C-alpha cells in the first residue's frame, strides 16, 4: 500500500496507508481528517477538498484540469501547488505523496 502523508492546517503530519483506486480526498477523509470537508463528495464542484501538494511531488501529480482550475480560482489560498484532492487518483506511483490541507476559504 502506498503511503500518504497529510499535514493538517496546524502543520501536524500523519502518514497513512493509502488505498489505490481511491482519490487522495477519499483517502484523507477515510482516515478521519475532519478538516477536509469534501462537501460535494468528489464531483469537482465544491473546492472544499483543496490541498497544497508538497514541492517534491507537484511535478509528478501534475497540474489541475480546466474545471478544477476554474474552481480553484475561487479560493484565496490558491497557489502553484494547489489541487483538488478529489481529482488526484492514488496510485502506487504516488507512494510517499505529501499534501497539506489548504486553509479554509
Ligand atoms: S470534494 Fe468537492 S471538489 Fe473535491
Automatic annotation (TrEMBL):
Report if keyword RNA-binding is assigned: no
UniProt organism field:
Pacificimonas flava
> What Gene3D superfamilies does the record point to?
3.10.20.30
Q: Where is this region: Disordered?
A: 62-84
Which terms does the UniProt entry file under GO BP? P450-containing electron transport chain
The cofactors named for this UniProt entry are: [2Fe-2S] cluster
Pinpoint the 2Fe-2S ferredoxin-type domain residues.
2-105
- Keywords recorded for this protein, A-Z: 2Fe-2S, Iron, Iron-sulfur, Metal-binding
Q: Is Metal-binding one of the keywords UniProt gives this record? A: yes
The record ties this protein, via SUPFAM superfamilies, to: 2Fe-2S ferredoxin-like (SSF54292)
Protein name (database record)? Ferredoxin
Q: Which GO terms describe its molecular function?
A: 2 iron, 2 sulfur cluster binding; electron transfer activity; metal ion binding
Family to which this protein belongs: Belongs to the adrenodoxin/putidaredoxin family.
Amino acid at each position: 500500500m502506498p503511503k500518504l502523508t497529510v499535514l493538517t492546517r496546524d502543520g501536524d503530519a500523519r502518514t497513512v496507508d493509502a488505498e489505490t483506486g481511491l482519490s487522495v480526498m477519499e483517502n484523507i477523509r477515510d482516515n478521519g481528517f475532519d478538516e477536509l470537508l469534501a462537501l460535494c463528495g468528489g464531483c469537482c464542484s465544491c473546492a472544499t477538498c483543496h490541498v497544497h501538494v508538497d514541492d517534491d511531488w507537484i511535478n509528478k501529480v501534475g497540474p489541475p484540469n480546466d474545471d478544477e482550475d476554474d474552481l480553484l480560482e475561487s479560493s484565496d489560498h490558491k497557489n502553484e501547488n494547489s489541487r483538488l484532492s478529489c481529482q488526484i487518483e492514488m496510485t502506487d506511483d504516488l507512494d510517499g505523496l505529501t499534501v497539506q490541507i489548504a486553509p479554509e476559504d
